[in-house]
Amino acid sequence: MEPRLLRLDDVHVAYGEIPALKGISMEVHAGEIVTLLGNNGAGKTTTLRTISGLLAPTRGTLTLEGEPLGGVPAHDVVLRGIAHVPEGRRIFNRLTVRENLVMGAYTRKDDGIAGDLDRVFTLFPRLLERVTQVAGTLSGGEQQMLAIGRALMARPRLLLLDEPSMGLAPVLVEQIFDTVRDINKLGTTILLVEQNAAMALSVAQRGYVIETGAIVLSGTAAELADNPEVRRAYLGE
Known about the structure:
By secondary structure, this protein is α/β, with parallel strands linked by helices. It folds into two domains: 9-81 and 156-237, Rossmann fold (3-Layer(aba) Sandwich), CATH 3.40.50; 91-154, no CATH class.
């Protein structure tokens, strides 16, 4: 097995007095796609926001390659190699496609930015066609491509994807997940939150199921896909 990249150990998070995560423990190894499944309000987005530094844990530890991550400011989390594609895309609506992508590389001072732009355009040819278009005028699918491309411009070791298929037509969902596979093959580790459990389990190697802020199941993607509880709750069987 590849070395552990990310580890959460007994992580608790609260919104004021309301507990959101109740001691979750999970890990992601380098090179994996790991999915986090759960219903609305289960704690999936809270988990990603905690990893990316937008929320601070009240208890427990987070580590990236053994280095403490809990409580690290979000901009420093990006510098350490984690990029977050949030639910709802959150692109810069008034900037062009190119300007959005360049913003993704704002932490970088190296000379590889042009090459990484080309890589994004190879992954998402539609963005090259729309490169001078104002991002707010893109379709939902194109905005999702842009949000992922912008995150990749940070050259992350770990990519956090929150509901990449939300609101997209089925044919676009297939395209997005084909590209998720391609991104992973190019060497980026991915932690995926996705309501479409069947699609998520088809691309992931391993997964966790979270309910009301606690991890209740874990295993390989195949094990979870065969689990009767998962099939009934998340696969509509």
